Amino acid sequence: MVVGKIVNTTHVSDAHLSLTDSKSFELLEFLNNIADEQSLELRDITTLVKHTLPLYPSIPVGFREKLKRLVSKSLPLLNHIIGFVASLKGSPETEIYKTFLIDVASEEINCLFNYLGAVRNAVELRLVQSVFMGSKLYNCLATSLSVTDYMAILKNQVQFALLRGCSQKLKSLGELLSAFLSFHPAYACDVLFGEIVLQSSLSLECFTQTLKATSRLAQSRLYRGLTRFLSKVSNESNSTSIYNVLEKTGFAGSNYRELIELKAPILRRVIITLECHGTRIACYEGLIDAFGKHEPAHDADVCQLLVMILQSFSQETKELLSHQERFLNAVTARLSSQDTLIRERTMFIGKLLTNGKLSFDSPFQIHTPSFNKPESEAINLESLKPSGELSSNKKDHQLERKINSLKLSEGTASNHSIFFLKDLLNEFNKTSKSRYGLTELLEITVSLVRQKKDFKTEVDFYADSLISTLSTLSNSFEEQNFEEWKTNAIVSILVTAPHKVFTLIKVLFEADLSLQQRMSILSSLALAARELRGLNDQMIVKLEDCSWKPPKNGSTAQLSNKTQKLVKDTVLQEGTVTWKSRKLSKDLEKRTNENRFQAVAAKFFFPLAHGWLNGIDLGPYDKMFKQHYLTTLRLILSAADPHSELNQMCEMMLLVMKSAEEQDIIIQT
């Protein structure tokens, strides 16, 4: 071993030594010796990282390959390199290390497989997960690699590990696949199931074996990811293949909440057909409780699922269930509703459960797709490949494209070629590589999300990723109107998918944000609450405003007069952030006939109120932030009226106000 010599003789400045130099010979001798060793000592790792890798661009190709193979077999070495890059803090040398890491991850596709094979306990498995799936490696490469590029690298690593996985490591592999889904909620699901598992019979078989061997928690996450993917590609023509895939993988069914989340009716029918009687009964019990609450946001889904489950029961089972107190109480509660549709659904389900004994003449029906357990076990994997972006069937996809093209071509905002939210996310993730500026992307977000308000499957699927991306954006290049368009973009997502407010609140409390980013989130929550309530704030761009042409080359935006108020009320230029509390005048408020905030008011208010009561401390900006926080809570509370939990909200608001008074927070009126 010649470690000592290398430590003393090699340095970044020696990168271009000729191979006739003795130091270069010593370097090559060191590499030649160490590359064939099974394990590395700490001093060897230190030598490689500090003194050898800076020479990576200038050493012969054969030795570069040896270096990459060496790292592909040693997780401690890879981990040490990542840590060393972080310690360099932007030094020019970091680009050499990043290039090397990208080469290793993309060319040595057996890295993950090798590291997994060396795992001896849960601690080592968590280390592998944190490096690949926990974004440790990605954070190191983020300035050189987009998230989509990194996902492509992960795909090859995961695919190799899945196809080559040994029986002794299947449990650990299942944990890794589960962690893979968490890395990027939108893309990872498409990649794992659309580009790996369902690409071939062999991949599906390997995935099935892995599923059966892994932990219950990992199984649950993987099954949930699989059904989410299948919900995007399901239609009546491939329902047999979907059934056989789920049956082959050992899928036992979903709980009622998961069934509600799956928006494809044919997939719901397939899953219910696949479930055993006990699982159906458990789903029924959850659904009948939700049926009694008749929440507007989910009532149509709950009723459709109840019909599907009841159609699968025998007459004896339905007779027994029809006399249960929970069913009778649910029917009584719903029949007292003033909503005709609620009463119609109630009577239809009541007639079905009582086998027609309930007398009620009405043409109203709840339609459900038909499906019978297939006799064949054949699986047509080609039929499970998405025919378009997030379309559950070809007809819907064509309709979506037609609507989008009409809206975009009729207006003047069609100077971009983004028609799907996945493409939009991709542009945000490209950062400096995108052909759009950040402000322009935010404008496109407002237009695109609001145009897709009726395509819930797509918006719901990408909402989490969009919210996380938008809320953590910062105006690094001081683009004009950035903050108001950012707020508009977040509001557009919240009013289209209000139940995703939990994601935004989670970012507020858990992410490492600047004061400006936190203030922007609070502004978005308040304005979204008001719009959902039916109030019209002029600073929020609605669908009818989306025909505006984005400014280019410094041109002035035609919407600046509409968004200027938002700048004045939520942010001051030059980075100073304030919130001006004011009584909104009547001409800024136009009530609509629909109040969509009632169904989600509690989800907006209570987490924020609890967050205050649990304690907030932003140091020198604490009072400024808390004043803005109080104003947000008050706006949300005012929008919540009327609400069944309004008294509880008011009581909690009093506690918040009392706490603010004790902290000398000025309560503006």
TrEMBL record:
Domain of life: Eukaryota
Gene Ontology molecular functions: Hsp90 protein binding; telomeric DNA binding
Stored InterPro entries: TEL2_C_sf, TEL2_Regulation, Telomere_length_regulation_dom
GO biological process: 'de novo' cotranslational protein folding
Any one cellular-component term (Gene Ontology): cytosol
Domain Telomere length regulation protein conserved: 419-529
PANTHER family found in the cross-reference section: TELOMERE LENGTH REGULATION PROTEIN TEL2 FAMILY MEMBER, TELOMERE LENGTH REGULATION PROTEIN TEL2 HOMOLOG
Family per record: Belongs to the TEL2 family.
Protein name: LAMI_0H05534g1_1
Organism: Lachancea mirantina
